[in-house]
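Lab meeting notes turned into a lecture example. A postdoc, R.K., suggested we walk through two folding results consecutively so the class can see how the record format repeats. The first protein's sequence and C-alpha cells come next.
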Amino acid sequence: MTKKTESRIVFWVFLVPVLFAFLMVMVIPFFLGSYYAFTNWSSSARVDGGLRFVGLQNFAESLRDPSFLYSFGITFVYTVLNMIAINVVAFALAMLVTGNLRFRNLYRAGFFVPNLIGGLILGYIWQFIFNNAVPSLGQAIPALGFLADPANLMLSKNTTALVAMVIVGTWQYAGYIMMIYVAAIENIPQELIEASKIDGATPWIRLKAITLPLCAQAFTVTMFLTLVNSFKQFDVNVSLTSGGPSTMLMGQPVLGTELLALNIYNTAFISNKLSVAQARALVFFLVLAIISLIQVYVNKKKEIEL
C-alpha cells in the first residue's frame, strides 16, 4: 500500500462518521420536514384518515394566523436591535482590551464567560434580576424609587420585555463577538498606527481611517453570526419571558415577545399542528437564508469600498 493510498483511507475513516451524522441529523430531516409541510401530518393523522397531501394549505393557514405574523415582525425588530447592540458593545470591548490596559487578558476571559452559560439558565437568572434585584435596588436608592413600582417591571410590558431580551442577548454574546474583533484589530500592522501617530492623527481619525477599514472582513463575519443567532433565538425567549406578556393584533390576543422559533415550537407541541409548524419552519429557513445571503453580499461590497 502506497503512502498516498494510506492517507486517503485515513481521510475517509475520519470523514465518513461525520458525514453520516450530518446526513442523519440534518439532511434527511430537512427533506422529510419539507415533505411533511405539504401534508396533514400530526400526532392524530392516522385517526383522521391517514397522511395525505394538502398542498399549500398549511402555508395559507400560517399567513392568516395573527400570532405567526406578529412573531415574524417582532423577530425582525429584535434581530435589528440585537445586531446593533451586540456589535457596538463587542467592538467597544475589543478596543478596550487591545489597548494599554493592565490585566487585559483577564478582562477578555471575563467578557467571554457569559457565552459559556446555557441560554435557559441565563434567562432564569436575568428573570430573577429584572423581577427581584432591580426592584430591590429601587427600594434601597430613593432616586431610583420608580424601579420598585410593579408597573415598571421590565418584563411586564411588551416593549420593555423586548429590550430586556436584547440586554440579555448582548450580555451573553458580546464577549464571543469581541474575540473576533480582537483578532482583527491585532492583525492591523503596527507600522500604520505608528505612522499615523507621527502624522498627528487623532484616535478618532485612526479609528475611522485605519481600524474600521482593516476590520471590514471581521464585520462581515460578526454581522452574519449575530443575524443568524438573533433570528433563531429560542432558549432565552423561553426562560426569560415565555413569549409574554400578551398583546392584541387583528382583534386577537397574541404573545407580545414570542419570537419565530418559539412560535413554531408552540404551534407544534402546544397546539399539536405539526404540519403547520413544519411549514412555518420552512418559511423561516428560506427567509433567513435569503436575508443572510443579502447581508453577506452587501458587506462584501462594503469591504471592497473600504
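The second example is placed directly after the first for contrast:
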Amino acid sequence: MATANNHPLVSVVVLNWNRKKFVDPFMKTIMAQSYPKEKLEVLFTDNASSDGSVQYIKEKYGDLPYLKIVQNDKNYGYSKGNNLGIHRAKGDYVLVCNNDLQLEKNLIEDLVAVAKQKRAGATVPKLVYANKKGYLNNAGSRLEPTSDWPIYEDGKDEKDEGQYDKIREITAFCGACVLFSRQFLHKVGLFDPKFFMYFEDGDLSWRGQKAGFKFFYAPRAIAYHVHTGTTTEGSPIFNFFVGRNRILILTKNAEFKVIAKGWLKTWRDHLLLRLKRLFLAAVGRYPRRLALRELLASQRMIWGAIFMTPYALGKRFRIIKEDKL
C-alpha cells in the first residue's frame, strides 16, 4: 500500500452528462487506486444531468472525504465542462478522465511517477477498449502540423501485443484520460470552450508544443474505455463537431497553406459531393431524403466553421486570451 510521503496531490476531474450507469464502474476503480487517498481529490463535474446522476453519487459515495461535486448550470460540453472542474482543482497534478473509464489500480501511481521522472506537461496511459478485449484504443497521439487532419492516434484498433509497452515521448494526447501538471495548465491554459467537444485535446496539445512542454506515454498505467460512451461516431452531432472543429484547430494553429487545404477538402466533401448526391437523387439513383438530410447537415457544419473563423483568428493572434488555471 502506497504512503503519502513524497506523493503530490492529484485532482481527478471526471465529467458527467446523463450517464449514471458509468458512476459505479468508475468510482469503484477510483476507490481501488493504490495512490494514497489523502493525496487525492475527485471532482465529479456534472453538466446539468437530468437522469439523477448527481443525487445518486451523493447518496452512494457522498461520505468519501476526497469526493467533491461540481454542478454546472447547463451542458457546457467536454471543453468548458471540464474547465469548470479544473478551476476547482487544488492538486499539483490534474487528471482529466472520461466518465466511461475503468482504471487499473496502479494507474494514478504510474502516471505520476512518469510525469515526475520526465517533468512532463502531460502524461497519458494505455487506453484499451472495454468492449473489445485485447485491442487498443489509444497509446499516445501524434501531432502532424503540416497535415489538414493534424491529430492521429497511435495504436488505435491494433491488437495489444506489447508493441507499445515502453515509456516514450509523444507529440499529442487524448483527452479521454490525461494527467496535466499544474504548471502546464497555468502557462498553456485549459481546453478551448468553443470547441465544445472533439479536437479540443488536439488544440491544447498543439498549444503545449508551441510553449515548449513535453508529453509522455506511460504504458503500465492502463484504463479501459467504453469508446464514444456519450456520443456515437457517425451521428449528426459527431459529424458536425468533428468537421467544424477540424477547421477551427487548423485556423488557430496551422500554417495558412494547411488551412487552405483543409477548407478545399471541406468544400469537396461537404458541398460538391452532397450536390452530386442530390443530383443522383433527382434521377432516382440515391435516396432523396437521405441526400437532402446530408446536404443540410453539411451546410450547417460549413456555416458553423465560417462563423467561428473570426474567433479562431482572434485566438491565433492572441487578441482573445486562452482560459488558464
